[in-house]
């Protein structure tokens, strides 16, 4: 997967010292955090007045992101009828198979992935740059991975919600921005509300919606919401960036720590809140490997300073299965990092 394009300004000797410090037991991080600690952050929700949901999140290093969520009603294809495809501008016959049940309240997950659109904007980068495309795809895949999100967009068999998630990084990234964008998207979706239908929930009816915003219902009802279903209710996913240095595992790595990482993975997890408890089980939705910056700097280090004492020599090869198992386990285990992060984010909504 695309590596972080940020240059490493540390010398070979400084990188070697940092790698040694992170490999100790217990490890010593440059900012004195524990291996599972995240950088301090501030966040707020519902800051964009014209959006269905929005959030702003800022890390202590100054990197900041804003996410806006907009929703509009679109017509869904039904058997034997012509529908206008907005993406292509042409008419086409669309048939729903037996597995495409889109009846509200039927208990069957319907909907389509194309009803969700995620865009990422990073200052100084094109929309088709590798990292921009990868970040958007990671967030998109996490949202549609469990199949529940698109089911929430069904109005009836003829109509559905189309959701646009616009992600803006307000400043040039000081480290790999995936966790920042993912956490901000999580908060924006938690704050997203859709107009409440007042009529037209039958499969052949045109829906009518309440104009009163106070009557709107949340896209992700809270555990204490009166409108929540009896079954478990999922929460928006989050993606954590995890690195390994030697036998040690670190979360929310800084740019310097990424520079000496032996392995980097992005772990997407989600939580559900059951009817009887608030600490739902975590589920693993996706794992992606990311090329650490050391792979790009290894050639220069070997050519220029291979013979010097203390020269930085990046590790070659991949990670062992035991290390990967440990990294994932720390994200999804009960009382682990994943539950701690999700619990902390709930406090901002």
Automatic annotation (TrEMBL):
Cell location: Cytoplasm; Nucleus, Nucleolus
Gene3D superfamilies: GHMP Kinase, N-terminal domain
InterPro entries linked: Exosome_comp_Rrp42_subfam (IPR050590), PNPase/RNase_PH_dom_sf (IPR027408), Ribosomal_Su5_D2-typ_SF (IPR020568)
Keywords from the named record: Cytoplasm, Exosome
UniProt key word Transit peptide: no
Family: Belongs to the RNase PH family.
Protein name as annotated: Ribosomal RNA-processing protein 42
UniProt source species: Stereocaulon virgatum
């Amino acid at each position: 997967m695309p590596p972080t394009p940020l240059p490493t300004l540390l010398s070979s000797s400084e990188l070697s010292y940092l790698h040694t410090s992170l490999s100790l037991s217990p490890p010593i991080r440059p900012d004195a955090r524990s291996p599972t600690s995240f950088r301090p952050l501030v966040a707020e929700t519902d800051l964009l007045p014209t959006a269905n949901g929005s959030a702003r999140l800022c890390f202590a290093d100054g990197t900041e992101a804003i996410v806006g969520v907009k929703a509009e009603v679109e017509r869904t294809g039904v058997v034997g009828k012509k529908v206008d495809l907005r993406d292509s501008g042409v008419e086409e016959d669309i048939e729903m198979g037996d597995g495409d049940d889109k009846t509200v309240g039927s208990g069957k997950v319907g909907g389509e992935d194309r009803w969700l659109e995620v865009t990422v904007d990073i200052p100084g980068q094109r929309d088709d740059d590798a990292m921009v495309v990868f970040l958007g795809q990671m967030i998109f895949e996490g949202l549609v991975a469990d199949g529940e999100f698109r089911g929430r967009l069904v109005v009836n068999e003829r109509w559905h919600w189309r959701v646009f998630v616009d992600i803006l990084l307000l400043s040039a990234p000081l480290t790999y921005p995936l966790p920042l964008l993912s956490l901000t998207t999580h908060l924006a979706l938690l704050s997203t509300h859709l107009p409440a239908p007042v009529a037209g929930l039958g499969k052949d009816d045109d829906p009518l919606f309440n104009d009163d915003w106070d009557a709107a219902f949340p896209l992700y009802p809270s555990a204490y919401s009166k409108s929540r279903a009896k079954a478990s209710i999922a929460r928006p996913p989050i993606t954590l960036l995890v690195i390994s240095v030697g036998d040690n595992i670190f979360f929310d790595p800084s740019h310097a720590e990424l520079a000496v990482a032996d392995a980097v993975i992005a772990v997407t997890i989600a939580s559900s809140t059951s009817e009887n408890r608030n600490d739902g089980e975590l589920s693993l939705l996706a794992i992606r490997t990311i090329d650490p910056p050391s792979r790009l700097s290894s050639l220069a280090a070997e050519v220029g300073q291979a013979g010097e004492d203390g020269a930085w020599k990046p590790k070659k090869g991949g990670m062992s299965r035991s290390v990967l198992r440990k990294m994932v386990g720390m994200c999804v285990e009960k009382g682990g990092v994943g539950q701690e992060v999700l619990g902390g984010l709930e406090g901002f909504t």
